[in-house]
Amino acid sequence: MRLIDEKGAQLGILPVPEALRIARERNLDLIEVAPNAQPPVCRIMDYGKHKYEQARRERETRHKSKTGEVRLLRMKPQIGPHDLGIKIRKLRELLGEGNKVRVTLRFRGREMSRPELGVALFGRIAGELADVAQMEGDVRREGRMMNMMLAPKPGKAPKEAPANKTAPKEAPKEKRGEKKERVASHVQEQVQSEQVVQPPAQAENPEDSGEAG
To answer: By Cβ atoms counted within 10 A, which residue in 12, 30, 65, 186 is the most buried?
Structure first.
């Protein structure tokens, strides 16, 4: 058998008992890596470490193949603001997972004569996602379809948008609190004014009684 040591050096053609003795002296394993070769090739290695590194490489390969997908998102050129916001949140989610996204517009009827609608819409989407995405290539039009490819921006942490969404919600609460304070102060003023008006009404009674006497 042809023997290779743990550093990749060729030790020559040796009998199996001799190869086993060398592996034991180094506290390593003797693994047959090419059984169909002539002569068969064996290698001295730490088999447990070899299996661990092999599993790690397989996990990394699966992860890269999963995050390297190209996803598709369709929308209309004249999409409403509410629906556009939903689409942008979906795009941010897909880009945050490491996917590329191809955004596709489908033109219908009179929309075919107004390609500037699609260009403007793509510009707005790219601007909204400038913190996490970048365009790959130019906007392309193929018949009724217009396409734009977005890719995750390197070196940027994804999913920063949710923190920004919650901030504006605090302002209405403060306004409602201020309104309650204004209502409370207005009620207090009314109560105080009523208390001020009451003493003159009580002072008239002695005068009336005096005139009567």
So the answer is: 30
Residue 22: what are its φ and ψ, rounded to 5°?
-65, -40
- What are the residue ranges of helices labelled H in 111-169? 115-128, 161-166
Q: What angle do CA 206, 212, 213 make, to 5 degrees?
A: 90
**What residues have CB less than 8 Å from 166, skipping those under 6 apart?**
none
pTM for this model (two decimals): 0.43
Residue type, 67: T
Q: How far apart are CA 58 and CA 65, in angstroms?
A: 11
Q: Kindly report, residue by residue over 98-124, the tens digit of the pLDDT.
A: 889 999 999 998 888 888 989 999 999
Q: Which domains does the chain have, with CATH numbers?
A: 2-66 (3.10.20.80), 68-163 (3.30.110.10)
153: left (phi over 0), alpha (psi -120 to 50) or beta: beta
